[in-house]
Design a protein that fits this description.
Elements lengths: L1 E3 L1 H7 L4 H8 L3 H8 L8 H11 L3 H4 E3 L3
Length: 67
Amino acid sequence: MITVNLDVMLAKRKMSLTELSQAVGITMSNLSILKNDKAKAVRFSTLAAICQVLDCQPGDILVYTAK
């Protein structure tokens, strides 16, 4: 199972979801879907943009855990 720790990275960077949405150019609803583990897929370009803004690696946001 893949868990999205976007809220953790946002907290570490003291950034709101709204600020990230504006900086990355992704709608709030799409970021909310990702943040709440409802997304079925994420584009590499989207992940790269989020990582650039949050100054992190994809592994800081996406975590694999065995069921």
